[in-house]
Design brief:
- The complex is a heterodimer.
- Chain A is mainly α.
- Chain A is 79% helix and 0% strand.
- Chain B contains 11 helices and 13 strands.
- In chain B, the strands form 3 sheets. Chain B has a 6-stranded mixed β-sheet with strand order 6-7-8-3-9-10, sandwiched between helices. Chain B has a 4-stranded antiparallel β-sheet with strand order 2-1-4-5, covered by helices on one side. In chain B, strands 12-11-13 form a 3-stranded antiparallel β-sheet, covered by helices on one side.
- By secondary structure, chain B is of the alpha/beta class.
- The radius of gyration of chain B is 24 Å and the shape is globular.
- Chain B folds into 2 domains: 241 residues, P-loop containing nucleotide triphosphate hydrolases (Rossmann fold); 53 residues, no CATH class.
- The chains are: A mainly alpha, B alpha/beta.
- At the A-B interface, α1, α4 and α11 of A face α3 and α4 of B.
Chain lengths: 276, 321
């Protein structure tokens, strides 16, 4: 049987394993749900301060609560995209289980896809929770094509997952001190427009610092999703962010897979697969 | 050229030097630079299909590195390793399909999952369907006497049971080659005996499983293995049958005979003498004692052991064989 046929079974193996590990910490799960509700409630009250004061040029920010909630839900996803693989590799190294996993006849792309699968499922749940609590408790309305928003979400997540693969390669070789996680985590929250319009950044911090947001795939993903969900735009109006994301993907996907392969080879050469 | 059916593992001119990581970078920042570690030097040998092959040596001799290279977890610096015809670097995925590795490393399992859940995870990674995996896992639990521990968390299991679970995992996909690193290290004497029996039965089944065993228990290696390699300082110093290796240290044996009724007395007496293995001395001595009216109560022969052989090679007093 070839690897492609076995891919679903192997992904399921990782998901089932991570689910069992997850339910062995039940309290943590309930506390996270409560914390999402607390964040949504807090944002609701903060949004009331700005009600009616939003500058009309920022069309996506007419209802700040809706914009923040989509921003947080999507940021959650993006963070998973670039951190989950590095985290799972680092965790397997710390537990000492990475060698046992790499001893089974699975190839590298399978390890990459499968070991992050549970994180994406978990994030989907919590991202959905932000939107759900906003809708149910605070009357936030979303419009536009949900399908198109999901396409944007998936595309951006895959692009960020490529950065995650680079991050995991770094963890594999250097064991810790992952700069991608630090830069992209803090950078996306600050520069990609999660909490405020990116135009404000250019206006106040100058064109050089403001243009950092143009280098982040999350900026385009978030912009596209908000255009669809908040402004109700269709495919024809969101081609620019869509094409930009596809360009990121075309460059980053082969490059990150190549780097990850090299990192595993290096760890095997140094005999450091289970070191951390 | 390697004969696939004859040899399960073929190792040719294998050397492994662990590089000093980020040597130039560390030197640039004037940080202490570690020297590269030469773990294996020009190792060559074959393991026959269905053979129980032992590898003995002191800590740091290169046993684990060699085992990990065969298992594709470490890449050789030079040389080649092939498992049933597949190269461990170029066709690593194919090699992993043919090899099961059991180490004494406790950290290789998920501590919050049960024994059964752990094996299920690895069975799925091996591509077994859930039905086949469940069947195989319950067979292995019976074989390794772990049935009652199936639903116990790995972290709550005793060290010996963790080790048995590691052997069960290695056997999950029924690989034709098993690499066992100290499979009885933490087992009680009875469990260790059963484990040895299991290992022996694997090599005798049809088709036979090739066993590559590393152990510090030399008596175990002597009992189980058809051939043994002695590794020291990353070099293979000798490969042969345990009997032949023993004879390298000394051809003589010390014989102890306990007798009673010798020269008309009733008291029992212990007589000892040295003989060359295979000579007629034992026969002659016993006949002489019987002619003098002695009743033979016990005969005990003290031979050189693999420990003596290992000691000999470690002291550097012998050539390579």
């Amino acid at each position: 049987m070839n690897s492609l046929k076995l891919l679903p079974r192997r992904i399921f193996a990782f998901v089932a394993r991570d689910f069992r590990l997850f339910v062995s910490y039940r309290m943590q799960f309930f506390l996270r749900i409560v914390s999402v509700l607390a964040v949504v409630t807090t944002l609701f009250f903060i949004s009331k301060i700005f009600a009616g004061f939003t500058d009309p040029q920022y069309s996506q920010w007419r209802d700040p609560l809706a914009t923040w909630l989509t921003g947080l839900a999507v940021l959650n996803y993006f963070m998973t995209g670039f951190s989950s693989l590095a985290n799972s590799i680092r965790q397997e190294q710390m537990q000492g289980t990475l060698e046992s996993v790499l001893l089974t006849p699975i190839n590298l792309p399978t390890v990459i896809v499968a070991s992050s699968a549970w994180d994406f499922l978990e994030t989907t749940f919590f991202s959905f929770l932000y939107l759900f609590f906003g809708r149910v408790f605070f009357g936030v309305h979303y419009r536009g094509s949900f399908f198109l928003a999901v396409v944007f979400l998936l595309l951006t997540t895959v692009v960020l997952a490529c950065l995650g693969i680079l991050s995991a390669s770094f963890a594999m070789v250097f064991k810790r001190g992952d700069p991608f996680g630090i830069f992209l985590g803090a950078g996306s929250a600050l520069f990609s427009g999660v909490f405020f319009p990116t135009q404000l950044l250019r206006q106040y911090a100058g064109p050089k610092l403001g243009s950092i947001s143009l280098l982040l795939p999350a900026t385009y993903g978030l912009d596209g999703i908000r255009q669809v969900l908040i402004e109700g735009h269709g495919l024809a109006e969101v081609t620019q962010p869509l094409i930009t994301l596809l360009c990121f993907l075309a460059v980053l996907l082969p490059f990150s897979l190549w780097v990850f392969g090299r990192a595993v080879k290096r760890a095997k050469r140094e005999g450091s697969l289970i070191q951390y | 050229m390697t004969n696939v059916s004859e040899f399960a593992i073929s190792i040719r001119n294998l050397s492994k030097t662990y590089p000093s990581p980020f040597r130039r970078l560390r030197a640039f920042f004037r940080r202490a630079v570690k020297d590269p570690v030469e773990a294996l030097r020009d190792v060559s040998f074959d393991v026959r299909t269905g053979e129980i092959f032992g590898l003995i040596g002191r800590n740091g001799a290169g046993k684990t590195t060699l085992t990990k290279i065969v298992a594709t977890l470490v890449q050789p610096t030079t040389g080649e390793v092939s498992v049933l015809g597949d190269d461990s670097v170029r066709h690593d995925e194919a090699v992993r399909r043919k090899v099961g590795l059991a180490t004494a490393e406790e950290r290789s399992f998920y501590w919050r999952l049960t024994a059964e859940q752990n094996l299920m995870f690895f069975a799925r990674l091996h591509g077994l369907s859930d039905r086949t995996a469940k069947q195989r896992i319950s067979e292995l639990f019976v074989k390794l006497e772990l049935e009652e521990l199936a639903r116990r968390r790995f972290g709550e299991m005793s060290t010996g049971n963790k080790q048995r679970l590691a052997v069960a995992r290695a056997m999950l996909s029924q690989p034709p080659v098993l690499l066992l690193d100290e499979p009885t290290r933490s087992l009680d004497p009875l469990a260790a005996a059963r484990m040895r029996e299991l290992i022996r039965s694997q090599a005798q089944q049809d088709p036979p499983v090739t066993i590559f065993l590393t152990s510090h228990n030399l008596a175990e290696v002597e009992t189980l293995c058809e051939r043994v390699a002695i590794i020291s300082g990353g070099r293979i110093r000798a490969i042969n049958t345990p009997q032949h290796l023993r004879s390298l240290t000394s051809k003589s044996e010390q014989v102890y005979v306990t007798v009673s009724g010798l020269n008309g007395t009733n008291e029992s007496k212990r007589i000892s003498f040295t003989r060359q293995s295979g000579d007629n001395q034992l026969d002659e001595k016993l006949r002489d004692l019987q002619q003098r009216g002695a009743r033979i109560l016990d005969v005990d022969v003290e031979r050189a052991t693999l420990f003596d052989v290992l000691e000999l090679y470690e002291s550097g007093d012998t050539d390579e064989h």
